[in-house]
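User: C-alpha cells for this complex, please. No commentary.
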Amino acid sequence: MKAAVLYEPKTPLKLVELDLDEPGPGEALVKIMSSGVCHSDWHVIKGDWGNIPMPCVLGHEGAGIVEAVGQGVSTVKTGDHVILSWMASCGTCESCQSGYPNLCQRPPAAQAKVRMKGESEALYQMAGLGTFSAYTVVPEVAAVPIDKSIPFPQAALVGCGVTTGVGAAINTARVGAGSTVAVFGCGGVGLNCIQGAVIAGAIQIIAVDMLDYKLDLGREFGATDTVNASREDPVARIKELTGGQGVHYAFEAIGLVEAPFVQSVLCTRRRGVTVWVGHAPLDTPVTIDARALILEKTIIASMYGSARPHVDFPKILSLYRAGKLKLDELITRRFDLKDINVAFDLLARGEVARSVINFE
Ligand SMILES: [Zn+2]
Ligand SMILES: [Zn+2]
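Assistant:
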C-alpha cells in the first residue's frame, strides 16, 4: 500500500510502498478514504515537538471504511464507515471514568504494524493512526462508526480540527448563551471555535488574524467583528468592541508564538475564561503579569476539544446535517496523496482553511 512518510524533520514527505499486518484481537483494519492536512502534521514536519521517532507515517485526521476486524471486536463491523480518533482510550482509567477519554492515561495502541516492504522494523504512525496511507489498523475504540450518508472528506475533518475547535467552545469553555467571545487565529481550528461559539449562543464573536482572507472566512463562519492584528492592537480593539469590558471567553487557536497567548488573557473581562487550543512548539514560554489574572480570570488548555469521540463525533455530524455547522465550506482544496507536499506548502502559507487528501 502507498503511504506518505517523513524520514527527517524539515524534509518533504516521501511516497513509499508499505506492508501492513492483519488486525489482531480488538483491532480493525480501515481503508482510508479521506485525510485532512492538519497543522499538527506540519508541526511534526518542522520538528516543533522534539524527537518524534522516524520514519513516521504522518496524518491523524481521517475517515474510511472498515475492511476487516480482529477477534472479539464488537463495536464496529466490516463495511462500517468510521471516523478515526487520534486518542484511543482505555475506558477504565481515572480520566476516562471522569468523562475525559481525551486525557486517557493508558491509551491502547494497535499491535498490528506497518513496515517498509520486505523489512521487519515497524514504522512509527502519527498519533497511532498514520492516515496519509491507503490503510491503517487501529484499536476498535479509535474507529467511531458514522452514518453512511456523510461524505468522507467532511467526516475526516471531524477527526481532528472540527472536534478540537467546536469542542473547545462547547465542552472545554462551555460558552454561555448571550456571551461575548474572541478567537485568535482563523485557521481550521479557529474557524471551528467560532462556529462552536455560534452554536452555544454567543452574541458577539470577534475574530483576530493577520490575514484579511482568513478574517473573511471568520465572518463566513459566524464572527460578528474582525480585527487584523497586523494593523491594530487586538487587546485594545477587543476592549473597545465590548464597551471597555473585554470578552467572556477567548480562544488562542494559533500555537506558534507568544503574543496571541498573552493577548488572549488580556482581552477577557472579570471572571473571563481563556482557552489555549493551539499547541505551541516546545520551549515557547508565555510571560504574563501575575496581576493579569487577579480579577478571577481562568486560563485552561483544551486537548482534542475535551471530546468523547463516541458522543461528540455523531453530535457534530447531526449539527452538520441540521445545517447548523459548516463542514463543506472548510474544504478549500482536494489533493491526491502524491501531491501531499503541495498541500503542506499551501498550509504553511496560510492559504487554505483545510486541504483534504482523497484516496480512491
Ligand atoms: Zn490535527
Ligand atoms: Zn483511559
